[in-house]
Amino acid sequence: MKFSKIVALVWATLQYIDNILPLPNFSDVVAVRAWLLAAVGLAEKVVGLTGITLDNDLVEAIKRVVVNDDTFAAFHKLIDNLLHNDVKTVLSTSPSSLRAELNTLAEKTKLNPLLILGIVEAAVAVIKLFRDLRTKAAPVAA
Q1: Which of 74, 86, 68, 84 is nearest to 116 (CA)?
Q2: Are 24 and 36 in contact (CB under 8 A)?
Q3: Which residues contact 130 (CB under 8 A, 6 or more apart)?
Q4: Quick check: pTM over 0.90?
Q5: Dihedral sign from CA coordinates of 51, 117, 29, 137
Q6: Long-range contacts for 62-69 (Cβ within 8 Å, ≥24 apart)?
Q7: How far out from the chain centre does Cα 79 lie?
Q8: pLDDT (tens digit, 9 = 90+) per residue, 124-137?
Q9: CA 128 – CA 83 distance, rounded (Å)
């Protein structure tokens, strides 16, 4: 990677860092949406540096989900469920409405439902990692 791209990447990250850290309360729909919009803004800057079109398409699909009220409601519900359960539990115990919402999300974004689930699961794993790191880094009261 060229030095100029590294500088651009660092600059883009610094522009969005205040909106990405700390993590939001994931039960708060408005806070999650604002956080995801900031994350998408950063992702747009990053994928613009790669020269690969697939990552641009993926970020654009995620942006469409976040900015659309109907798809975001389903997306948020999926994230919230996966933050508290693993994928197998969500799929096996979720009401049919959640599966319908996932299918609606897939239809609107033109992505395979399993791909959406995989993307969300990866994002949730990163969120859990940051949350766990924050919990472990918290000072212990004496």
Answers
A1: 74
A2: no
A3: 23
A4: no
A5: negative
A6: 62/36, 62/119, 64/108, 64/109, 65/105, 65/108, 65/109, 66/33, 66/36, 66/37, 66/40, 67/37, 68/108
A7: 8
A8: 777 777 777 767 76
A9: 7
Residue 33 DSSP code: H
Helix, strand counts (H, E) of the chain? 7, 0
* C-alpha–C-alpha distance, residues 101 and 106, integer Å: 9
- Contacts of 106 by beta carbon, 8 Å cutoff, 6+ apart: 112, 113, 116
Residue 141 predicted with pLDDT over 60: no
Interval 90-94 mean pLDDT: 65
Exposed (0-12), middle (13-18) or buried (19+): which is 131, by Cβ within 10 Å? middle
